[in-house]
What we know:
Helices cover about 40% and strands about 20% of the residues. It is of the alpha+beta class. The chain has a four-stranded mixed sheet, with helices on both faces.
Amino acid sequence: MLAGVLATPCQNTELRPTPQDIETVSAATLCLIQQERARNGELPLQLNAQLAHAAVEHSEEMVSRDYFAHIAPDGLTPLRRVEAAGYLPNNEVGYTVGENIAWGTLQLSTPAAIVAAWIASPEHLANILDSSYRETAIGIVPAVPSALAQGQPGAIYSQEFGVIVYG
C-alpha cells in the first residue's frame, strides 16, 4: 500500500487555487500529504465529510473575519469546530483531533508550497505524521485575509485530522 502511494506522482501541485479548481488543488494537497506519510511509514488518511465541513468553514471564516489563527476571535477551537460539524458521534467515544492552517500568496499558495511549509514546521509535520490519525480533510479558499495579503491573490488552507476510538 505504501509503495503504491509513493509510486503515484502527485498532479497539479503547482496550481494556484481559483474558485474553479478547488477540488483539484485539494486533491493535489492531499496527495502530497499522503506521500509524506508513506515516506515515513504511515498509512494513508481517509477523507471525512464532517472534517471537510469544519475545514472549509474555518478557512472561509478566517477570510471573512480577517484573521489567521487556530482559535477564532469568538473563542471557537478546532475541537469545537469538528464537534459542530458532527465528527464526534457522542460523548462516549475517544478521539484525537488536530489542525494545520496555512496561507500564501502567488506561488506560495500552491499545494507544493503549502505542504513544504508544513513539512518544514515541526508542529505541522507532527500532525501530518501522527500515526493515530485515520481521517482528514482540507478546506481551501482562494483568498487570504486582507490584513495579510496586501492585495495579492492567494489562498488559505485548513487541514483537519481525526480519529474516533469506539469502546
